[in-house]
Amino acid sequence: AQPIYLADYTPPAFWVDRVELTFRLHPTATRVLSRVAFRPNPDAPGPFTLHGQDLTLIRATIDGNEVTPTLTDDGLTCPAPDAPFVWEAEVEINPEANKALEGLYMSNGMYCTQCEAEGFRKITYYPDRPDVMAPFIVRIESDLPVLLSNGNPAAAGEGWAEWDDPWPKPAYLFALVAGDLHAHRDSFTTASGKPVDLAIWVRDGDQDKCAFGMAALKASMAWDERVYGREYDLDVFNIVAVDDFNAGAMENKGLNVFNSAAVLASPETATDANFERIESIIAHEYFHNWTGNRITCRDWFQLCLKEGLTVYRDQQFTKDVRSEPVKRIDDVLMLRGAQFREDGGPLAHPVRPESFVEINNFYTATVYDKGAEVIGMLHRLVGDATYARALDLYFDRHDGQACTIEDWLKVFEDVSGRDLTQFKLWYSIAGTPHVKVTDTWADGSYTLTFQQSVPDTPGQTDKPPMVIPIAVGLLDTDGTEVVPTRVLELTEARQNFAFDGLATRPVPSILRGFSAPVILEQTVPAEHKRLLLAHDTDPFNRWEAGRALARQALLAMLTDRAAPDPAYLEALQALLADDSLDPAFRALVLRLPSQQDLTQALFDAGQVPDPLAIHDALTAMETAMATHLQADLTASFDAHQVPGPYRPVAADAGKRALANGALALLTRTDAGARAKVQYSDAANMTQQMAALSALQRIGAASDALEHFHSQWQHERLVLDKWFGLQSSLSLPAEAVATVRRLTEHPDFTWENPNRFRAVFGGFSSNLAGFHDPSGDGYALMADWLIRLDRLNPMTTARMTTAFGTWKQYDADRQALMRDALERIALVPVLSRDTKEMVTRILA
Ligand code: DPP
Ligand code: ZN
Which cofactors does this gene product need (predicted)? Predict the structure, then answer.
């Protein structure tokens, strides 16, 4: 397959004015009738071509006259008038055979679609590109009781229903659902007084898991009105939960389709973390109605235009409804864990990629999360008022259009008067910038010197300096803030910033709030880290200082066989007992860097990470924490039990997070005594899972696991947790055997992406298990990726990232991983998706 280049973009040769579709649903032989009004584009004349894939063409007409199109590799072409005309076609498709879960497919007897990015071409012949936007009218014929599509309900009768979506949309936002579904209903009145009927559609038995999602939807609708001035624009908003889904959720106009794991929740079956994730995904998909649907992407290279902005908006929403500092820390953990890792390896690519073979491979942490960081920096640089004016202008100027990053930046330039040429590099330069900082003190003047550089990435070397907003504050050595936060704009390769009029040499707090997605290199004495941990007014940097102390202590254990640093333990002790601090924040401070973080830290320090040694160091540190902080952890555990009925609110969740963080540590030295009690007493999934995880981490969970399986064997989402917990937390020596055993379990329904990801996503996060020196973990993963690729290329390709850091390891492991990757690459009928990924990883 040939790559496609951003530079080759040409507008469509034909526009579409109107689409009418009729679906005669049948599990193995669905007929799709299309009637599409085309109009030649005078600005880009060219042949009439339509995309199509896995379709059986029954007949086609142009203006009522039968035509015989020429079928091509990716669709068809046909002579067409040089004037507006109506194309009609009838095709047959087989939803039941569609296990790739793109296009129209079946999941537990229900029909469902997924069209982003290029799934619509598996439904009918059409210009399946986002810059072709049109209103859709859809008729569904089926005996199933619930028949849904985009837009407003138009008419319905026995065995049919019609839907009318007046807002022009690209084909990737098309959706159809048909099934025996039950509605959880509510309503919302928009700011201008328009009523909207809301429904979450689920399978029988899931009705009790919708209330939280519905509340989140209403909160999102109100928030988007209040903060961005954006009202909803249809009479109905439907959400459907589907069990078989490749991603989290999809923002189809008026008919969002959700992975059931991303919407269904009850206190008994979902954890605090699940509730929070559901809230943010509901918000994300709802916010797409304006940032994605009303204003969409011109081409798939512009994916970050909608995704970066919508992630940024859902992050803002969560900060508003929960805790701002805690959300910022969570997001940075995510960014460093996934995006920095991607940016530092063979899969690095710019926020706006310039070429791809398969677009599905670019729904990445870089496009989404670094894309959101770039918008955060822009917001920080121009300030709140200008940001708000720029967004208003964006919505005014581009409503109904398919846009580019150039359009997006132009509204900021027009509103702020700034030249954003250098800032735009954030969209085209891959790799995480390194910012080295040094300081000097002379005559009451304190100077910070920054040096920036961006490492080489595949296809990119010798990178120019970027615009990097660096939020800085200064403390004195008693911990009093002497200079409040100020945003320095680093634009040169090397730049000084002076602070005058200080009485004594200050302690700097740099990159407050993680004001830019960069790797900060600074030599900070341990006593300054402790000072910042105790006193910084910026909660992010407070946490960051604790994190740095933990990392330093762990690296000393790994490289110098040092004992766990008592000064670190003391600093933690003070923090644990500080009841003025949000328990959720304390829970985050208590959490050690992950195996992934330490792997990266060792690699950055020029060493070869040993997964087993990293696992052992973390265990030793946790044991030391449990021993030295036993009284404090016990007090925290006791003081943060939440009595009464479970509520998924941030305040309660924070207390549970702190108590359960303490529990995990205490379990290291009490042989699981507390965790076993909590497991038996647990009245909600948060408490039950926390206890089970703590037991699994010390290898003492077998009884509880058996109990858990029998309790929850009929709740598929809970069963995913049972699989995931074992693959991700099994002790290193047992992990490969455990995963193999899980794949032989009768409940391992591997064609279901959630179940597959629970086992193999969990396994790939269990670094000491996955990187077993025998290479058995790699071989097992490769076997299953090869197997899944025949059915589901999208999920397979994403899971190949388990091998994405192979070059960081020792020669033996590298050779074993390369073998596994080459074995995948050599499969004769490998999908384009997986082929592109393994080729990039191996390059
Ligand atoms: N467009 C979707 C989302 O990010 C991807 N499935 O919301
Ligand atoms: Zn999105």
Answer: Zn(2+)
- Whether residue 799 is contained in a domain is answered as no
Q: Answer whether 131 contacts ligand 1 (Cβ < 6 A).
A: no
Is there a cis peptide before residue 117, judged by omega within 30 degrees of 0? yes
φ, ψ dihedrals at 355, nearest 5°:
-155, 155
Which residue is it, tokens 């007014």? 537
Residue 174 lies in a domain: yes
Nearest-CA residue for ligand 1 atom 7 is: 250
Is there a single domain that holds both residue 26 and residue 172?
yes
Dist CA 62 CA 79 (whole Å):
9
Residue nearest to atom 6 of ligand 1 (CA): 250
- Whether 307 lines ligand 1, by a CB cut-off of 6 Å, is yes
Cα(88) to ligand 1 centroid in Å equals: 30
Task: Indicate if ligand 1 lies below 6 Å from the C-beta of 314.
Answer: no
Contact 120, 152 (CB under 8 A): no
Find the DSSP H helices in 745-810.
Answer: 753-756, 762-765, 767-770, 776-789, 793-799
pLDDT in tens, 397-456: 999 999 999 999 999 999 999 999 999 999 999 999 999 999 999 999 999 999 999 999
Domain that holds residue 512: 434-523
Ligand nearest to the CA of 173: 1
* 285 a catalytic residue: yes
The CATH number linked to 304 is 1.10.390.10
Domain termination residue (choose one: 378, 408, 428): 428
CATH number of the domain within which 585 lies: 1.25.50.10
Asked if residues 661 and 698 have their Cβ atoms less than 8 Å apart, the reply is no
Q: Which ligand is nearest to the CA of 372?
A: 2
- Claim: this prediction has a pTM higher than 0.90: yes
Domain end call among 428, 460, 495: 428
115: domain CATH number is 2.60.40.1730
**Residue 28 covered by a domain:** yes
688 occurs within a structural domain: no
Task: Say yes or no to pLDDT of 1 above 90.
Answer: no
* Percent share of the chain, pLDDT over 90: 100
CA of 524 to the centre of ligand 1 (A): 40
Domain count, the chain: 4
The one catalytic residue in 102, 162, 279, 285 is 285
Encoded tokens for 418? 């700034």
How many residues does this entry show for the chain? 843
Q: Is 250 in the pocket of ligand 1 (CB under 6 A)?
A: yes
* pLDDT tens-digit map of 187-207: 999 999 999 999 999 999 999
